[in-house]
Amino acid sequence: MINNFEDKEWRYNHFQNFIWDNIAETSLSHKERESLVNNHHSLLTYAAKNLRLSDKSGDISKGSEIAEIILYAIMKHHFKALPVVPKIFYKQNAQDNAKGADSVHIIIENGNDFSIWFGEAKFYNSIEDARLAEIITSVENSLLTDKLKKENSIITNVSDIDSLIGDEKLRNEIKTSLSPRESIDLIKPKLHIPILLLHECEITQKQTSLSDDYKIEMINYHKNRAEAFFSKQINKLGAIPHYSEIKFHLVLFPVPLKKTIVDRFISIADFYKNS
Description:
The protein is globular. 52% of the residues lie in helices and 17% in strands. Residues 94-98 have low confidence and may be disordered. By secondary structure, it is α/β, with parallel strands linked by helices. It contains 14 helices and seven strands. A hairpin with a 3-residue loop joins strand 4 (103-109) and strand 5 (113-124).
């Protein structure tokens, strides 16, 4: 994924608008989103109140909520997925139940089948080799049987799935498949792991336009990073039962300066949070 430029500047405002246009998908329940659909300011105000704003703490999670929101937006617009568990909403309102994957989605396949998507989202200052081990460990933890069963139980116990999937027969089949009584081995062929690495990029810092040369340079760089990532992941996780049946999607999104984005996000969030 890539942002563009205007007047020789990376479009920070456009990027922030993308975040705030999609924040409700992960910060509000489906019922809340529906009740506020024609009240845009109220929707943003309620969404902001559910932000953890951990970005102020200066710890390793700095910017984590931004990455989570971006991943939800990509899942919605690119993969056409249903946000069956708005994670920021449940992390704020039910701390013990929301730990685990950074995004939880279901995609309806061919009208009568489904796939399940448990996403990881990070906002890094760099995606060189030294940073890759951290995200691979996070993916590894998300694939533990007890973690998968817990995510499945969250999906089946929150009300959003009932509102989002109108086909009762399919909805019941999904709930049965995700039951803790079922072997987790049966769900792995339906399991997708989207991994978003939102990252500060020196190449992007030097650009003034979305030129073909820039696109080619980013494609080559990201191919290199993807090969390094999956090589390390296979070496570490390849022995996980049915690993080869799980589908992994690496989503790379370069930005010029992480601090600028985080600071603007917090400023806007504070405005809405205190409205």
